[in-house]
């Protein structure tokens, strides 16, 4: 897993062993809360195997707004960087193998590599990619019907539908599980 990370940052070969030693591997059961909404984030996670979801509490209703799978990094960026309470929780959906790194180690590494132009570009691209994903999800709630959001999910990210329980998918789409069942039935009728 960390070899793939190393391949993405080839300029760091002379420092890589030091950086790798900062990551700790852990096995986590499904439905494990890695970060609770309101807590301050001190860790970032790299997913070797499994699925995580990011959610928040909306007046007693659990709302899922993002899923992360293998080879993704996950943290509450605002909480992690600014020391603010996290606006969301991070929870495992499946049994996961994760690599975590502490905030102090990340800060040290970033301070060392940020002066390398190619590294700075790679870090910024990663951050912009996450922002673009949030923007697309947000715009789909304005532009698309729930059925269209589900069809887009089937087309663009079929692995989500295959691996994530229906009630989390419904929450992610902004609908109830019953509404999602009706959408799926309507799509099945159209296909037959």
TrEMBL record:
Protein name as annotated: Cyclic nucleotide-binding domain-containing protein
Source domain of life: Bacteria
Species classification: Bacteria, Pseudomonadati, Bacteroidota, Cytophagia, Cytophagales
One Pfam family named in its UniProt record: cNMP_binding
Domain Cyclic nucleotide-binding residue range list: 34-110
InterPro entries registered for this protein in UniProt: cNMP-bd_dom, cNMP-bd_dom_sf, RmlC-like_jellyroll
